[in-house]
Structure formats: structure tokens, C-alpha cells
Task: inverse folding
């Protein structure tokens, strides 16, 4: 009689472990994948305040560009060309890292 009770308890324990393991596998499959960048931030090159400001200053007002960056447009471009490779990420990265101009 005791052997039957132990056998039932062992079978029940095995069933519980199997159900818990199966549930964990299903949960892992259903887990949402994280995005590298949220959709809002993917549009920052079009709508971001920095991008709009820099484009406007560069195109129309060299004095204000110098006041904002402390460089002339030519000095800024020269400095950017020197550090561009250091601030640009690897091409193997799967997400958009932006241009070096926007990382300054």
C-alpha cells in the first residue's frame, strides 16, 4: 500500500514538473522582442529639434551657427571630418545609429 502511495506521489510530482517546464517554454516563445529603436525615435532625423535647428542655422545664418556651436561652418565640418570615424558605429550593427553629423 505504501509503495502505491509513493508511486502515485512520484507520478504526480513528475506531471507537475512537466507542466511547469512546458508553460515556461510557451512563455519564452510568446515573449515580445525588444526593438533597438522605438518608432518615434526613428523619425528624429526628420522631425528632431536638433536636426531642424542645425539645418536652418547652416543654411541661413552663419553668425548664429557660430554662436550655437562656437565654430564656423567650415571649422565644424573640418572637425567633424577628423572625428567621423571615431563616432560612427560598426556597419555590422543591426540598427540605425545615425550619421556622424547628428552624433555631435
Result:
Amino acid at each position: 500500500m505504501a509503495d502505491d502511495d509513493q508511486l502515485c506521489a512520484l507520478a504526480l510530482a513528475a506531471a507537475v514538473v512537466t507542466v511547469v517546464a512546458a508553460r515556461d517554454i510557451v512563455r519564452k516563445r510568446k515573449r515580445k522582442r525588444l526593438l533597438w529603436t522605438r518608432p518615434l525615435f526613428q523619425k528624429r532625423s526628420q522631425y528632431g529639434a536638433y536636426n531642424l535647428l542645425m539645418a536652418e542655422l547652416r543654411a541661413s545664418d552663419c553668425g548664429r551657427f557660430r554662436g550655437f556651436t562656437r565654430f564656423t561652418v567650415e571649422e565644424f565640418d573640418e572637425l567633424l571630418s577628423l572625428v567621423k570615424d571615431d563616432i560612427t558605429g560598426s556597419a555590422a550593427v543591426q540598427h540605425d545609429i545615425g550619421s556622424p553629423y547628428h552624433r555631435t
Observations:
- Residues 6 and 49 are 71 Å apart (CA to CA).
- The longest helix spans residues 2-30.
- Residues 1-29 form one domain.
- The mean pLDDT is 76.
